[in-house]
Amino acid sequence: MTTTASPYPTLAHALATLDSFPLAGALQISPDHPGVDFDALERARTALVQSWRNDITPEEIAVTPQGGLMITWRRAGWALELTVDPFALSAFRLDSPSKMVEWTRAGSEATIADAKAALAAMAGDSAKAPARPQASA
Fold first, then answer.
1. HSE on the CB side for 25, CA within 13 Å?
2. pTM for this structure?
3. How confident is residue 34, by pLDDT bands cut at 50, 70 and 90?
């Protein structure tokens, strides 16, 4: 059972937040409230659904200035940022008690696998710790 005061205690809360963002090109967007790219929204939705853990829920879900989405998880010395951009890439930044690593992935399957592995490491599931990401150009 989760005892954190996350703004997204359930997957339904997180998905409702994603649904609340205006799409790029919509009339209600402005420089202060940018719209999200539809494809980035769908990829973020898929990654969130497939990697959801009740024991580590997101702390923040926000639209990036480029029209992508950033999802942030935090837990006891750990922080994971997943940025899903409009250009079919996902960028990860994982701060752990021992180091910080950044990498990118193309495609939903690799993004989901890395998100699951990083969240497992944050939860202390040592058997599911992420493989060391390869540096990307």
1. 2
2. 0.84
3. confident
Residues 6+ apart with CB under 8 A from 84: 40, 43, 44, 47, 68, 69, 70, 71, 90, 111
CATH architecture of residue range(s) 11-128? Alpha-Beta Complex (3.90)
| Residues 68-82: tens digit of each pLDDT | 999 999 999 999 999
pLDDT tens track for 125-135: 864 444 545 54
Distance CA 8, CA 11 (A): 7
Q: Would you list the domain boundaries of the chain?
A: 11-128
Coil/strand/helix, residue 6: coil
Residues 83 and 116: their CA atoms lie apart, in Å, by: 15
